[in-house]
Amino acid sequence: MTILDERRRSLLTEAAADLDTAPIDPAELIDLYHRHVLTEDLATRHPDDMRGGVLSHLALARTRQPGEILVAGFTPSVETHGWATGNTVLQVVTDDGAFIVDSVTAELDRQGHEVKFLIHPQLDVERDGEGTLVGLGGGRAESWLHVEVTRIVGQDALDGLVARLREVLTEVATAVADWEPMLARAAEISASLAAGPESVPVEERRQLQGLLDWLVDDHFVFLGYRRYRYSDDDGILEQVPGSGLGLMRGGSGTSRRALRGTVGEKAAERQLLIITKANSRSTVHRSAYLDYIGIKTVDADGVVDGEHRFIGLFTSNAYHGSVRAIPFLAGKVDEVLAASGFAPDSHSGKRLLSVLETYPRDELFQGDVDYLTDVATRIVSSRYQRQTQLFARPDVYGRFTSCLVLLPRDRYNTDVRLRIQEILMTSFHGTGVEYTTRVDDSATAMVHYVIRREANGAPPAADLDDLQDWLRRAVQTWDSGWQAAMVAEFGEIEAARLVARWGGGLDDAYKAMHQPRVAAVDVRHLDELVDGVRASLHQEMSAHPGERRLRLYCDRALRLTEVLPLLLDFGLAVTDERTHRVVARDGAVRHILDFGVSARDESWWAPGDDEESGFLAAFLAVWERRAESDRFNQLIGSVRLTWRQVVVLRMVAAYLRQTMHYSTGYLESALVENPEIARQLVDVFEARFLPGDLEDRDAREQAAADAVLASVADVPSLDHDRMIRAFLAVIRAGERTNFYRPEAGGAVALKLDPQRVPHLPAPRPLIETWVYSTRLEGVHLRFGKVARGGLRWSDRRDDFRTEVLGLVKAQMVKNAVIVPTGAKGGFYPKGLPDPQRDRAAWLAHGRDAYREFVGALLSVADNRVRGRAVGPDGVVRHDGDDTYLVVAADKGTAAFSDLANEVSAEHGFWLGDAFASGGSAGYDHKGMGITARGAWASVTRHFLELGIDPQATEITVVGVGDMSGDVFGNGMLLSEHIRLVAAFDHRHIFVDPTPDAAASFAERARMFALPYSSWADYDAALISAGGGVFPRSAKAIAVTPEMRAALGLGDAEHLTPTELIKAILKAPVDLFWNGGIGTYVKASTEQHGDVGDRANDAVRVDGAELRCRVVGEGGNLGASQLGRIEAAQRGIGINTDAIDNSGGVDSSDYEVNIKILLGSLVADGRMTGRQRDELLRSMTDEVAASVLRTNYEQNVLLSNARHLGGAMLGSHERLMAWLEQHRGLDRALEALPSTAEMDRRAKDGRGLTSPEFSVLVAYAKMALKDALLASSVPDDPWLEAELAAYFPAPLRGFAEALRNHPLRREIVANRVANSVVNRGGITFAHRALEESGAGLAEVAKAFVIAREVFDLSGFVAAVELLDGKAPTALQCRLYVEFRRLLDRTVRYLLARRPQTAGIGAEIDNYRDDVRRLSGTISGLYDEAGRARFDRRAEDFAAAGPELSSRVAGLLDGVAFLGVVDLAHRTGDDPGLVARGYLHLADVIGLDGLLDMLARLSSEGRWDAVAKSALRQDVYRLALALTADALALSEDDDAAERVRLWAARHTSALAGLRATFGDLQGESAGLGQMWVLVRDLGLLTGSPE
Question: Is the pTM of this model over 0.90?
Answer without folding.
Answer: no
